[in-house]
Amino acid sequence: MESKRVDADGTLLEFLMEHAGYATRTRARTAIKAGAVAVDGNVLRIPSSDLKTGAMVSWTALSKQSAAKDFDLGGASSKNAAKPKEEKPPYEVVYEDDFILAYVKPAGMVFASPKPQVKTSYTRMKQWMEANRTNLNAIQFVNRIEKESSGVCVIAKDLRWRKHLQDNWDQFTKRMYVVVQGHLPADDVLFCYSKDDDGKRKEKYEFEYRTMRATASHTMLKMTLGFDQIPVLMSGLRRLECYLLGKGKEIPDPMGRSGLHMFGVDIEGPDGEKIPIKSRVPQEFLNLMKGGKGPKAVPSWKRELQNKEEEQKRPHKRSGHSRN
Q1: What is the C-alpha separation between 68 and 58, in angstroms, rounded?
Q2: Please, is 32 exposed, middle or buried when counting C-beta atoms within 10 Å of its C-beta (0-12, 13-18, 19+)?
Q3: Which of 74, 76, 101, 253 is the most exposed place for a label (fewest CB within 10 A)?
Q4: Which domain holds residue 264?
Q5: From the CB of residue 234, how many other CB atoms can be counted at a distance below 10 Å?
Q6: Within a domain: residue 130?
Q7: What are the pLDDT digits (tens) for 61-118?
Q8: pTM higher than 0.85, yes or no?
Q9: Cα dihedral sign, 91-126-94-178
Q10: Is residue 32 part of a domain?
Q11: DSSP labels for 177-218?
Q12: If the chain, 324 residues long, is cut into consecutive pieces of 10 residues, what is the mean pLDDT of each piece?
């Protein structure tokens, strides 16, 4: 293994291209996705993962990544015998270390079920881990994701980690891609309200969002929120005549799934370990938004100026007595 400390913030792919001697970005991406690169001892499989100054990156030297010899005159010894090839996981693994594994649950698949005859994403991943991982103290899920949505699911390999992560899951920062029918102002804040039993406004929420792409009918947003906040978000969207795709019988469902994908979660371990986990945009979202553009955000000062100009153009009512 070769190692080097990060001297400037950037992405994992950029670091390897500069320091690991890869001839092309494709080869560097392949090495990352194959698990040949670790950051601070933890394997990272996403090329776009952020690197912070001071982190230690380790990777398998290029000379050791070469294929096996074409022939062996003396026969393979037990020491040099090739290891059994690892089975491909049933779902994309986006992060793994000694304590947790994170994968992407696809939409349409049940996450977990008390009925043993029901096929779930968790049981499939558990079976794969039992066949391809050794020295596991436990295999237990941490978070759930609804059937019609997709996103990052975490499995704990250690009971201490499982309890800590479940107890603190609500405090971790979560990020979502959200696809809606309709349009919102570019890169703004959505104000939403929860309601009490009488339908009156109870609590105000402010959801900042970034507009990723927009077509004639749909908009894809990047937001910081979790699945527990989706009902409040939907009420705020409806107020602006925008509708979360695939959520509710009356809502359009052009993708055959919901417009929700939890692409990231920032985990903190029981000893203060910082673990940012991130996945890619679902292909269904990309297909629906094909040809769409990312509108440029209007700065707040410019929006205020535009509002003042519009206010000045409006006719003002005259007060007082009219002249005879």
Answers
A1: 22
A2: buried
A3: 74
A4: 171-302
A5: 18
A6: no
A7: 665 554 444 444 444 444 455 556 778 999 999 999 989 999 999 999 999 888 888 8
A8: no
A9: positive
A10: yes
A11: EEEEES---SS-EEEEEEE-TTS-EEEEEEEEEEEEEE-SSE
A12: 85 86 80 86 86 87 51 46 73 93 95 86 94 86 95 95 96 96 90 75 87 92 94 91 87 91 96 93 94 62 69 60 46
The phi-psi region of residue 41 (left if phi > 0; otherwise alpha if psi is between -120 and 50; otherwise beta) is left
Q: Token pair for residue 203? A: 């609590």
- Provide the 8-state DSSP code for 163: H
Domain count, the chain: 2
User: In whole angstroms, what is the distance from residue 124 CA to residue 121 CA?
Assistant: 5
Per DSSP, the three-state class of 140 is: strand
- Taking alpha carbons only, the member of 227, 48, 224 closest to residue 153 is 227
Give a yes or no: residue 115 inside a domain: no
pLDDT in tens, 121-158: 999 999 999 999 887 888 999 999 999 999 999 999 99
- Which residues are registered as beta bridge partners of 57? 4, 39
